Amino acid sequence: MNKAPYYPALIVAAIEKFAQQMQQSTQLEDGVLTARVVGEFSAGKTRLLKELLSSTMPDDLFPVSSIERQTKLQLEISYGEQAELTLIERENDYDAAKVIKKLTRFPLRDDIDSSMYSPEKHRLQLSVPEPHFILPTGDGFSDKKVPMRLFLIDTPGWNSGEDDIAEREASQILTGYHNLGLVYVSDARRLDGKTNKEHLSDFLEVLQGADFLGKAHLVFVVTHCPEADQLRFQQRTA
Fold this sequence. Notes:
By secondary structure, the protein is α/β, with parallel strands linked by helices. It has five helices and nine strands. Strands 1, 2, 3, 4, 5, 6, 7, 8 and 9 form a nine-stranded mixed β-sheet that branches.
């Protein structure tokens, strides 16, 4: 009867270490590169995101509309093998996320205890099986060249009448360090309003000094644009 071959413990340890390294190299890491969606309350930010992502997530995990005023927390969206919504603690984009609890539906205002969870330290995190949120060779800021997640962050809309965090200066919302781009959403009917003009001017000023991966990118999305407003905008840009 043949005896089982003898492998020195050193070889076994080396094989185990190599196997662990191979597993780690295929794991998806959180990057620091972000793209933020900003704009006035009820401008169409939520509708825009839902149109882009509706095929990859259940309706229960996404806000119905901004009219519901469902939460004061930022919503960060990134890649996950399956759709999942969690309440996390993450004060800055570059901080590691601490999972507080998993949610089975998008929370209403009363579901989030404001005495326990603050907009400055807590966020909602939505994972969706969308490959476009994977950065195959890293986030461009870290020296690591491994697959990382890109984060799309939906910020609370300003001028809602109740969100102090949404009225912050643009420099605080942009965070200033790891930006891919900024998506500015505005309702055509309120584009020339005083609040929108002030915030837009603030954002344009901050864009000049903010840290972007490559050139600064601003995508301007105009929603709820009746034909009369379309004609007016065409005349202004001619």
